[in-house]
Every structure is written in C-alpha cells, then in structure tokens.
Amino acid sequence: MRGKRLKQYRKLMQQYGLTFGFREPYQVVFDADIVRDAARFKMDLIHGLERTLHGKIKPMITQCSMRHLYTSQPKNEALIEQAKTYERRRCNHQNLEKPLSTFDCLKDVVSKGENGMNKHRLIVASQDEKVRAHMRRIPGVPLVYINRSVMIMEPMAEATEDLKTRDERQKIRSGLKMRSTLGKRKREGNEVESQDTAIEEDGSKFVLGSHSLPAATDNTRPERKKKRKGPKGPNPLSAKKPKKRTPPAPQPDNLLEDNNNIPSGKRRRKRKPSSRQELPEFAVLDG
Fold first, then answer.
1. pLDDT of residue 269
2. Which pLDDT score, from 0 to 100, does residue 94 have?
3. Nearest residue to 32 (alpha-carbon basis) of 127, 158, 97
4. Which residue numbers in the chain have pLDDT < 70?
5. Which of 28, 111, 120, 272 sits most deeply, having the most CB atoms within 10 A of its CB?
6. Is 245 helix (H, G, I), strand (E, B) or coil?
C-alpha cells in the first residue's frame, strides 16, 4: 500500500510540474502545528516530505508561526531551535502586537499573486483543516499533512483540476492553429507555401486577394528523384565478384580445314603395322 501511495504522489508532482511549473527544490511552508506533531510522532519532517514529494525541498516557516512556537505552553526550546534552521518566510505581520492566526497568515502568504493564484509555487504543510479547505479553492496549491505518523498528500482539488483541463485544451487548440497557419512543409530548400497562395492548373502561383497576374513558375528547378520502393539489392561488398571470361585464341586456317574433314561420330583407332612381314602361302620353306 505504501509503494502504491508513493507512486501516486510521484505522478501528482509531475502533473503539478507540467501544469504550474513546480520544480526542485520545492518550497514548503510549515505551520506551528505540523512541527509539533512531527516531534510528537518522532518523525523526521524534512526527510518525510522529501520522500513524499519525490525531490529536494526548501523548508520555510512564517514569522507568525515562529511567534506561535514562542508563545506556546509548555514552551519547547528544541522545537524553536529546529524551526530557526528553516528559511523565514516574510508575511509582513511582525509589527502587529499579536500574531495572526495560521489561517489568516497563510492566506496572505500564498494568495499574493494575480487573481489570488499561487504565484510563488508554494506547497502548504498544515494540520489545520480550515487552512487546507481554503487552499483547495486556490488553483495549484499542493497540500500535505500528517495523519497518525503517516505523511499524506492530498489529491488535486477541483479548482486545480479545472484549470489543468482548461490549460490542456488551450494547448491543443493552439497547436492545431499553429499547424493550420504553417501551410506546406519545406522541401529541399524550397520556400514554405502560405495559405494565401493558390496554384493554378498550369503550375503558376496566384496570391489570393490580389489583382496581379499569376507569377511564373521556375522551371529551372531540378526534379527530385523518387526513392525506389521495394526490396533492396545485395550488399556489393559481400557479393561474389563475377569471373572475367577470356575470349578463345584464334586458330590458323589449316587447323580449321583439318577439323572440318574429320567425320562426325565415333573415331576409329588406327593401328601401326607390325615389323614382321607375312610370307605368302605358296612360298616354299627351305630345308
């Protein structure tokens, strides 16, 4: 369950980053109550927030919250020393005789931007339910609190979801609008054709809305070779080179005549005559 929750928190911070521009180190504003509860549950507040927000944080505390720690009963010097290590967020309430409540102080600090937006991209870590209910009405304010020694990050509020959806639709429309105004793509160094340019049947260009004659086309442009589609041939480096065939040597004319006189068919073997001479039958032998 813990791994699934941390995965949801990582996706949530990615959405805050894409829509509202949150980036590390995240500026987290504490109130006095969450500092006390973290000490009561023996939690490392900074490490817990970094694990929840999936990034480095810059801890901040308002001047009113510091005065709440000083005036709390019983007074805890260790918490005061710990809070002094955080960056002091000016709320301009230090000249008042009594500090403002956590609700009034954080409301002035967070909603200082135009139209009450979270201009400085602050993350509010508060245990006050009234404070968190008010911050849900301000778009783009992540909320964190502690529930029984577990750090919880609230999902996006309805106002934040509406603004995110509106921003996504505006991006899609602007993308389609830019795509329609670009016209034709640029090819091989040719100029981009605009929407106000029409092409006649003979290939000449004519600007819409003008009374000038069509501009002559440039016929000297080199035609682009079409790429051949289909299977490619073998690699010439790996293919076997063909053998060169040498032409037959010319033969003399007398050899050609002898070859022509040879009868076709099976050759007959010629036998040499023996050296012994045969005597005739009527010869009379001596003795």
1. 72
2. 80
3. 127
4. 1, 113-114, 176-222, 250-267, 274-287
5. 28
6. coil
Angle between helices 32-40 and 45-53 (to 10 degrees): 100
Cα 95 to chain centroid, rounded: 51
Nearest-angstrom CA–CA distance, 15 and 53: 12
In one letter, which amino acid is 73?
A: Q
Strands (E), the chain: 26-30, 57-62, 87-89, 122-125, 143-146, 151-153, 197-199, 205-207
Q: What is the distance between the alpha carbons of residues 26 and 41, in angstroms, rounded to a whole number?
A: 24
Give the pLDDT confidence of 86-127 residue by residue, as tens digits: 999 988 888 888 889 999 999 989 987 667 788 899 999 999
Burial class (CB in 10 A: 0-12, 13-18, 19+), 264: exposed
2-163 is a CATH 1.20.1250.20 domain: no
Is 88 in contact with 58 (CB distance < 8 Å)?
Answer: no
Alpha-carbon distance 147 to 41, whole Å? 10
Question: With b meaning 16 or more CB within 10 Å and e meaning fewer, what string describes 128-142?
Answer: beebbebbeebbbbb
What local confidence, expressed as pLDDT, does residue 91 receive?
Answer: 87
Calculate the CA dihedral of residues 42, 47, 53, 59 and round it to 10 degrees.
90
